[in-house]
Design a protein that fits this description.
The protein is of the alpha+beta class. The chain has a single domain, classed as Outer Surface Protein A, domain 3 (Alpha-Beta Complex). It is 43% helix and 29% strand. It is built from 4 helices and 6 strands, in the order ββββαβααβα. A 3-stranded antiparallel beta sheet has the order 5-1-6. A 3-stranded antiparallel beta sheet has the order 2-3-4. Strand 2 and strand 3 form a beta hairpin. The longest helix is centred in the last third of the chain and has 17 residues.
Length: 104
């Protein structure tokens, strides 16, 4: 799957419980009883999947937050985490237009 920069990602706050441990997090999928342990970076990506920003914006924020790491390396890492979230069903993806329609 390829992520379009304008894709909006929204985490499943109703179906997933989040527990915080310092900067890390554990996600519990209620329906499947699955657990996902997130390191600090993945937990921050999870937080960014609140539907308020598209994929390009999420990546740009992380590139800005980690200026000492190469932009391509950061972008690839964030994309990998996002794709893991999507494939696990932890986030739903939609277009900017779909999100704007819901807001009206």
């Amino acid at each position: 799957m390829d992520l379009d920069g304008r894709t909006i990602l929204r985490r499943d706050d109703d179906g997933v419980a989040t527990a915080r441990f310092d900067e890390e997090a554990v996600l519990y999928e209620i329906e499947s009883s699955s657990l996902h342990r997130l390191n600090a970076t993945a937990a921050a990506v999870w937080d960014a999947c609140d539907g308020s920003c598209d994929v390009a914006g999420i990546i740009a924020a992380f590139v800005d937050a980690y200026p000492d790491v190469g932009a391509h390396e950061v972008a690839d890492g964030v994309r990998a985490v996002l794709l893991d979230f999507i494939s696990s069903g932890l986030v739903a993806s939609g277009s900017v237009e779909q999100t704007e329609d819901r807001a009206e």
